[in-house]
Write a structure and sequence with these properties.
With 177 residues, the protein is α/β, with parallel strands linked by helices. The protein contains five helices and seven strands; from the N terminus they run E-H-E-H-E-H-E-E-E-H-E-H. It has a seven-stranded parallel β-sheet with strand order 3-2-1-6-4-7-5, with helices on both faces. Helix 1 packs parallel to helix 2 and helix 1 runs parallel beside helix 5. The radius of gyration is 16 Å and the shape is globular.
């Protein structure tokens, strides 16, 4: 960014030029940590994701911890709060958006081997319990990030970034113009 370009934080959201959004819809189901949610907002802004669906006990604005980690991204990434994840999934299905769970599960495909549809909704679950079986049953596919260490999981915000950028890579959305 040149010295002449204004930083987005200095421009009121209503005066920021609308960007073309990548048709990635994020569904966060019962995430415990507002810090993880804030980080997901920041990464969603970086990847110009279309929408975040915050479900169940997942923190939603206004929330001090979420705002601290999001660093202003709350103003730029469209979001909706749903009492229940099924409400978000019903809405996405009505819009004919394929729904993919990201979960370490039997039969899950590697996130790099999976051919990501355009558009797509990606579901992330609770940091401890993961995605509930009834929610997994509502998803058209399940992908996972291969784990090669002793633990079989990584932080949900980190997992989101890994998956989002693989989707964008496959779609050719990372090419510099």
């Amino acid at each position: 960014m040149s010295e002449l370009e204004p930083h987005y934080a200095n421009i009121p959201p209503e005066h920021v030029k609308q960007l073309a959004r990548n048709p990635v819809h994020i569904v966060l189901d019962n995430l415990r940590s507002a810090f993880n949610v804030g980080s997901i907002f920041r990464t969603s802004d970086a990847g110009a994701a279309a929408h975040i669906h915050l479900c169940g006990l997942t923190a939603y604005p206004p929330h001090v911890k979420l705002e601290k980690t999001a660093l202003g991204a709350l103003d730029y990434v469209p979001w909706t709060y749903h009492d229940h994840v099924s409400q978000a999934l019903d809405q996405l299905r009505a819009e004919h958006i394929p729904i993919v769970a990201v979960e370490v599960a039997e039969g899950a495909v590697s996130h790099v081997a999976y051919s990501w549809p355009l558009p797509v909704a990606i579901v992330f679950g609770n940091e401890v319990t993961g995605i509930q079986p009834e929610t997994l049953a509502q998803c058209g596919a399940v992908v996972q990030i291969p784990m090669h260490g002793y633990k079989n999981t990584i932080n949900v915000a980190t997992a989101f970034g890994v998956v989002l950028y693989e989707i964008l890579r496959q779609w050719g959305a990372l090419n510099e113009e």
